[in-house]
Specification:
- By secondary structure, the chain is an alpha+beta fold.
- The chain is built from 13 helices and 16 strands.
- The strands form four sheets. An eight-stranded mixed β-sheet has the order 3-2-8-9-10-11-1-12, sandwiched between helices. Strands 7-6-14-13 form a four-stranded antiparallel β-sheet, with no helix packed on it.
- Helix 8 runs antiparallel to helix 11.
């Protein structure tokens, strides 16, 4: 049996089983008028009957007429914060000896990972997981992933044009497709690993019928055609290489606040910096790593000054790296099409719109150069 069906109560049971096996279950929950990622103790904490409306610079939570659990698009938090924490101590010293803090990697079970975010976890594994003893590699190594095929994309989603969704393709233990109709509230469940099969065996389920499987596939396929946004179908690397001096960047800079929100909510932005702090006596010192952003003025500071002093140069660096030079470094795009950077930009800058404007600004942009294209 590769596909099964579970009901809503079995989803609650799955959370209980995961906790019983020692996993910290992380999943969506409603908090402060948003759907966030939080540790779940019971299935009652899931966002049953809540949806979201999204647009550039806008996110609104609203009740739904049904009890759907996963009928919402990406919120302000991504799974990055768990595999690459926003703040982590590296070492401490009492003035004579240095010591590393306890660095045990939590045993996480992620519930509700969508295709875009699953692609982001793969990207972080490539970027940060080269050291098998590193924190990120150890977290991902023991991770349980309960993925969700998205059937209701949001107004800023463009995962279909980035090849990352709305369906999940790999790297999951179980993948759920939610259905609510006259037959009840259920989840068509694809089994991805032996671990997933074992977990499924501990909760009530039935084998999926052909109708179950076909209806799940159709719902995901339909969602592909209802994306709120799309990235231009051109060779973005070539486009961005040629666009260095285009006036589009200056126009964006006139709107951009260089606040760094886009990099903080991005599920793949990984840049960090380190700071040393001490107590008032100066006898105890700690070094902390925390997230940083290429939008910070001091991020590009070298001896003698800052390389990127203008907002124009910083936005151009971010977008060019994300969509272009990331391929040269890591073999893939740094964008997964989740739309968070559009949603949580205070002035509503839309990366897909800016890419489209660059396409129009360059006459030959519609002729992609040979090579991979996102």
């Amino acid at each position: 049996m590769d596909t099964a069906v579970i009901d809503r109560s079995a989803l609650d049971d799955l959370i209980a089983v995961l906790r019983d096996e020692g996993y910290r279950v992380i999943g969506p929950s409603v908090r402060d008028t948003a759907i966030v990622l939080a540790e779940l103790e019971t299935g009652a904490q899931l966002p049953d009957g809540w949806g979201v409306s999204t647009a550039p610079g806008e996110y609104r939570l609203h009740p739904r007429a049904d009890g759907a659990v996963f009928a919402h698009s990406a919120g302000p938090m991504s799974w990055k914060q768990f595999v690459h924490p926003a703040r982590r101590m590296l070492w401490s010293s009492d003035g004579t000896e240095f010591s590393a803090p306890p660095d045990e990697a939590p045993r996480y079970a992620f519930l509700g990972v969508r295709g875009c975010d699953l692609a982001a976890i793969r990207t972080l594994r490539t970027v940060l997981g080269a050291d098998p003893d590193g924190y990120t590699a150890r977290v991902i190594e023991q991770l349980v992933v309960i993925a969700v095929n998205c059937t209701e994309p949001g107004g800023v989603c463009f995962c279909a044009s980035m090849g990352t969704g709305p369906g999940v393709a790999a790297d999951y233990d179980l993948a759920l497709t939610e259905h609510i109709d006259a037959l009840g509230h259920r989840f068509v469940t694809d089994i991805g690993t032996d671990k997933g099969r074992r977990l499924l065996g501990r909760i009530h389920h039935r084998e999926a019928s052909t109708v179950d499987v076909d209806s799940a596939r159709d719902a995901v396929e339909e969602a592909s055609g209802r994306m709120g946004r799309t990235m231009p179908d051109v060779d973005l690397r070539a486009l961005l290489r040629a666009a260095r001096d285009e006036p589009v960047w200056e126009d964006v800079a006139n709107r951009c606040l260089t606040c760094g929100n886009c990099t903080m909510v991005c599920p793949t932005c990984f840049c960090t910096t380190a700071e040393d702090v001490s107590d008032l006596t100066g006898d105890h010192t700690e070094r902390w790593q925390h997230w940083s952003s290429c939008f910070e003025l001091d991020y590009s500071h070298l001896h003698g000054g800052n390389i990127r002093t203008s907002g124009e140069s910083r936005y151009r660096q971010w977008m060019t790296h994300k969509m272009g030079t990331w391929f040269d470094q890591f073999g893939t795009s740094g964008c997964v099409g989740c739309g968070r950077c559009i949603d949580w930009c205070p002035v509503g800058i839309d990366i897909t719109a800016e890419a489209a404007r660059l396409t129009g600004a360059l006459p030959d942009a519609s002729e992609p150069e040979p090579g991979p294209s996102p």
